[in-house]
Specification:
Blueprint (H helix, E strand, L loop, with lengths): L5 E3 L6 E5 L4 E2 L4 E4 L3 E7 L2 E6 L2 E4 L6 H7 L9 E2 L1 E6 L3 E7 L4 E4 L6 E14 L2 H9 L4 E3 H7 L1 H17 L11 H17 L3 E12 L5 H19 L1 H18 L6 H8 L8 H7 L21 E5 L2 E6 L1 H10 L7 E3 L7 E2 L4 H10 L7
Parallel strand pairs: 1-4
Antiparallel strand pairs: 2-9, 2-13, 3-8, 4-7, 5-6, 5-9, 10-12, 11-12, 12-14, 15-16, 15-17, 17-18
Length: 369
């Protein structure tokens, strides 16, 4: 009884295509094509018959390729020379993609350039086995989904770069891009699909899972600072935020009174905080903590104008011009405690005629709601 060869492929793992290792085929052998597979006979470099799933015996009459061999002058001999390729049409899942190097993207909202990295996964499937065999497999013994992933990596990264550029140019900031991942995934699918279809492959799914950048990137640090300040202003309101920044400057002034005033002069020279002038900054070096009970400070001389209490810190002596600047900056109002030579104690600014008139003349009414 003649031996019957079984020609088949288990189709396991990540393989998309596989070639039967022997080219010596026996007449009467059985070709087994499992579900999710397609088999091809290749004779002298030409793709001949395509066999769908099922079991078929190699004989004339049921395989056009063998009938063609029978018509040749030498007839059908056994074994005969031919190649058998199997192609899987099952989906290959969880293929990874990612940008090995950052993509420099300009944030249209904040004007910063970020080195963005993007990651995700996708799945593919061979929907045209003959085209796939002719354009990709060639003379290879086998082709895996990992090889395909590497083969098309450049195209995926190029499409990702363009898609990211488009989404950031549409006035979507990096801080909000995470809410647009579905939109970006669909965009990338549409960009990549036509390219893969040229090779008989379709994308079943494509996902962008993460868009990020290094936390130590200078642009990212700047953006965090901008967002933090924006959030603080939103919560406190612009007027309170401005007053709070002025308080910070005054605290720094008090803490640096014993250091020679270098940092103090720099802060006021840059116009930070109250912007009350470098001469006032020098005078701050002699300031002491205000005690709202007990004796007021002693008179420092004929040039003394006013002392102002800000957050428990005595600021002064200040000439009336600097008092004006504090009023404009919002750091001195009717209820701010002030003192000048001749007063027995600290009083609210509204009780001093000169400062009260000054506040009334420099303060603008609130914008009506």
């Amino acid at each position: 009884m003649a031996l019957i060869d079984i020609i088949g492929w288990d189709g396991g793992g990540s393989q998309l295509a596989w070639k039967w290792p022997s080219t010596n085929l026996r007449f009467g052998s059985q070709l087994v094509v499992r579900p999710g597979q397609t088999a091809f006979f290749v004779y002298k470099g030409r793709i001949c018959d395509e066999i769908k799933e099922g079991t078929i015996t190699l004989k004339t009459g049921n395989i056009p390729f063998l009938t063609m061999l029978m018509s040749l002058p030498f007839g059908l001999e056994t074994p005969f020379q031919a190649e058998v390729f199997f192609v899987s049409t099952l989906a290959k899942l969880n293929l990874k993609w990612g940008t090995a190097t950052p993509i420099n993207i300009e944030d249209s909202k904040y004007g910063l350039i970020f080195p963005v990295r993007a990651y995700g996964q996708y799945s593919i499937r061979v929907n045209d086995p003959k085209l796939f065999l002719a354009s990709i497999v060639g003379a290879s013994q086998s082709i895996s989904s990992e090889i395909i992933s590497q083969y098309f990596r450049g195209k995926i990264i190029s499409a990702a770069s363009k898609a990211l550029g488009d989404i950031f140019n549409s006035n979507i900031s990096f801080t909000a891009v995470a809410t647009h991942l579905d939109e970006l995934s669909l965009d990338l699918t549409q960009r990549i699909s036509p390219f893969l279809e040229q090779y008989g492959i379709i994308i079943d799914s494509f996902f962008v899972e993460s868009i990020n950048l290094p936390e130590n990137d200078t642009s990212f640090i700047k953006l965090k600072q901008i967002k933090e300040r924006s959030a603080e202003i939103s919560i406190l309101g612009k007027d309170i935020y401005k007053f709070d920044r002025n308080i910070d400057v005054l605290r720094a002034v008090a803490e640096n009174t014993a250091s020679g005033g270098g940092a103090l002069q720099s802060a006021f020279g840059a116009g930070i905080g109250l912007a009350i002038g470098s001469t006032v900054a020098t005078q701050f070096q002699q300031s002491q903590n205000v005690t709202h009970t007990g004796e007021p400070p002693s008179s420092p001389g004929s040039q003394t104008s006013f002392f102002v209490a800000v957050e428990g810190t005595k600021v002064g002596p200040l000439p009336i011009d600097d008092i004006s600047r504090m009023v404009v900056a919002g750091s001195l109002g009717f209820n701010t405690l002030v003192w000048k030579p001749g007063y027995s104690n600290w009083i609210p600014a509204r009780q001093d005629p000169e400062i009260s008139r000054l506040i009334a003349s420099l303060s603008s009414p609130d914008i009506p709601r």
